[in-house]
Design a protein that fits this description.
The chain has about 300 residues and is of the alpha/beta class. Helix content is about 25%, strand content about 25%. It has a 6-stranded mixed β-sheet with strand order 3-2-4-5-1-11, with helices on both faces. Helix 2 links the parallel strand 2 and strand 3.
């Protein structure tokens, strides 16, 4: 059924031309740890024969997204990778992907914002979409994490990447608004940290929908943060959001971290849950605390899998 929001035409910041995912099986070997003296070039750690790494996952998802969007490599002017598990701190994962794709010298950098890395990267990357510039947005995480996130058990590990090709607006669909934020706050007793995240998510939702000129009751589907189901459930109860409007499947996506939002959108498109013109609100939150939100008017976006 058409959304109430179809009558309200917020101006999109950019369109999502294609989404690609890369989900290797658990039987695929991890890339071995190497020291700086082992590195003979920035492409070393993205070669498939070396096993799974964050950079190799990201490169595969990027190829799938470019294929889905039928995008020429020459049009890519920026690569932004959101991750909490870079294989090395330098060169950045985005630069490794750039080398693997054999792109010329374009802007390429990572954004580290714990479990909110993907939407934080979107908040930055969408600002650089232009008439002749394509932005390659990637969320990637692996079980090669250098540092455990606070409160994250060792069983919370994923190996996946998802990418989106961002282009200039073609019609009224695409990314309507983005918000990212956070605060360095001391730990609060009891469920204080959870309450902080619920409050932060609420602020992000309000700010994002205000930018888009929409109300929450005009949103058709909310893709929640899959690694924080309790926070999402608390927020949805406070907001009065019906459970059938919340996509929350931590058993499927909870360990994917930065790859989760685009992977959930990919699967929703494949399953037919996302229909052209639907208003979709995507949320992320995590350690820091940090939070981010993006409001989309879904278009007939092609998807692919590596």
């Amino acid at each position: 059924m058409p959304s109430l929001a179809h009558a309200r035409q917020a101006v999109a910041l950019g369109s999502i031309a294609g989404i690609g995912v890369n989900r290797p099986g658990a039987d695929v070997a991890l890339a071995r740890r190497v020291s700086g003296t082992d590195l003979t070039g920035v492409s070393y750690r993205v070669q498939a024969q070396h096993g799974v790494s964050t950079a190799s996952l990201a490169a595969g998802a990027a190829r799938a997204a470019l294929r889905a969007a039928n995008a020429e490599l020459a049009t890519v002017g920026m690569i932004v990778v959101g991750t909490s598990s870079p294989d090395v701190l330098w060169p950045s994962t985005a630069c490794l992907v750039q080398s693997e794709l054999k792109l010329p010298l374009v802007a390429a950098f990572d954004l580290y914002a714990a479990q909110a890395s993907l939407l934080t990267a979107l908040d930055v990357g969408i600002r650089y979409v232009g008439a002749s510039t394509t932005v390659l947005l990637i969320g990637a995480d692996s079980d090669n994490q250098l540092v455990d996130l606070p409160g994250q058990g060792r069983n919370v590990r994923g190996r996946a990447a998802a990418a989106a090709v961002l282009r200039a607006v073609n019609g009224g669909s695409g990314v309507l608004a983005t918000v990212s934020g956070g605060s360095a706050r001391p730990a609060r007793p009891g469920n204080g940290d959870r309450r902080t995240l619920v409050e932060g998510v609420g602020e992000a939702v309000t700010g994002c929908l205000t930018k888009a000129g929409l109300r929450l009751d005009e949103v058709d589907l909310v893709v929640g943060d899959q690694s924080s189901p309790e926070v999402m459930q608390d927020w949805s109860r406070q907001a009065g959001l019906a459970s059938n409007r919340l996509l929350l499947d931590p058993s499927q996506y909870g360990a994917l971290l930065a790859a989760a939002p685009l992977t959930a959108l990919h699967d929703g498109a494949v399953a037919g849950r996302l229909q052209d013109g639907m208003i979709v609100l995507v949320l992320e939150c995590g350690s820091g605390p940090v939070w981010a939100a993006a409001c989309l008017r879904w278009q007939k976006t092609r998807v692919d899998q590596w």
